[in-house]
Protein 1
Amino acid sequence: MTRNGKATVRQAGDAVLPYALSARENAARYAQQARAYMAPRASRAATQARLRYEAQWVPRIEQARLAAGPAKEKAALRSAAAVAALRGDLTADEIRHMAHRRRRRARTGQFVRRLGLMGLLAGGAVVAWKWWSAQTDPDWLVEPSPATDVPSEPEEQALG
């Protein structure tokens, strides 16, 4: 670059420098104003979003997690059984036998629960019948039998 070109660039830089400094100061001031204006609104919006999330999504997520609990346990058991079967630790007959035992235990448990429920119902029916029987024929409503005179000497009356 020639001397004349360098001087022109320097002169242009000196002419633009106050405007650039002013623009930098204005930008900093506007940024501070924007931050002062937007910070409370952004904070409020973040708080509302957090509250809505906690009110709407957290219960749904917990409900889904609870509903997935038994499925997760079943999947873990099945995957463990599958890994054991793939390793050769279990045979197909053993797996069938375990499945049969599980079904049989489930049926037995269901039978015991039903039997217990029937026993409770029968016991309740007996208690209700006894209560009803006591209400319809209470002892205090029954009149005592009439008194009879007993002879002092039964033989004398028979002879005499």
Protein 2
Amino acid sequence: MAAVVPVAALIAMGMAGPAHAGENCTDQSDNGGATATFKHHGEHLLVTDNFRDGNSAIGHLEMDDHSGDHYWYWNRKGKGETVDFNLPNIVDGVGVHIGAFLGNWQGTADGGIDHNSNNVIPYCSGEALN
């Protein structure tokens, strides 16, 4: 089951500026256990769990609209599974910053995230395009 909740800026990390329109982007957790891919056309976030390690894969999305909103997209289905999150409310041309993390579900969308599971900076960035 997947959960999504906006979270105030929890991570103070540098992020690259948005990529050019038409670019998809992918990020992995530091150990490769989680992958998040933003598909700019149609605004989909694919979150894949790559390892059977007891951790869930988590996609992180931050809108580049100066709102500071963060969203966490959990894939708790297990190794080899990908969850496709359709994000139709992203306005065309708005940049998004993508990250992939690991975590252990604790009943809330922002509980149990291992914030140290992705220390690679800068984050992948993409731009919405319907």
Protein 3
Amino acid sequence: MTSSEVPSVPIEDVPVEFDRPDPAVRATLLDVREDDEWRLGHAPGAIHIPMVDIPSRTEELDYDTELYVICRQGGRSLQVAEYLAHIGYDVIQVRGGMVAWQHAGRPLVGDGEQPPKIY
């Protein structure tokens, strides 16, 4: 899914800095999936704000960084990216979402005892 309102990139163009937590990175990978999806598996360098919470939690996002917005496959991230662009954020939607992330062999971490997974 893409939009003429916000740029989008394939998983191959998402910075490798998100493959690990790195406070020096001047961009943000924003995961907008639900809590249960996040717990199963997510990018090590991502921050998590579920889609439904975005309007009330935008103060947690930095206007001075690029925001790469990701979800499971691209639908929710597109909606969030359009919203954030409308209110002034510099956003990039990640095409294919975390499914593409896992398919590409990018690292995953989870919050449970099971190995992290997206699908």
Protein 4
Amino acid sequence: MDERLDQAPCGYVSMADNRVIQDVNATLCRMLGYEKRGMCGSSFESLLTRSSRIFFQIYFLPLIKLNRGVEEMYLTFKTSSGEPLPVLLNASAVERDGEWVYDCMLMPMRRRMEYEQQIQQAESASNRAREELERIENLLRQKRDELERIQGTSSME
């Protein structure tokens, strides 16, 4: 494997049509905590969580065969320590030596989950503030109407 690909800032895996891993880069090995020789020859699906394995079988396989590519597929891997590692996968199908091979790039998504949680918290706080503002505006409107009624009755006297 080319040194630049081996040390790329994203994971790379190449698997045969039967989903047996043929090659991985050092980055993916570090991300998952496995040795390269332990990953090559194993099943790609064995690295996925149960739900991602099902998702992979239902969506990845038909898409890669139909479109010869998959973009932005969210999967979760299991690291050697059992921790989940969410990734974004892009893949392409290429024919090498008369056999189909799937080349995949994997971008870790640890930070994205944190960012999404922060965005959700901010949206929730914004909604609460908007509701409070509406409540205060309604109260202000009621007080203004009450004041106008009081001023209207005192001017009639």
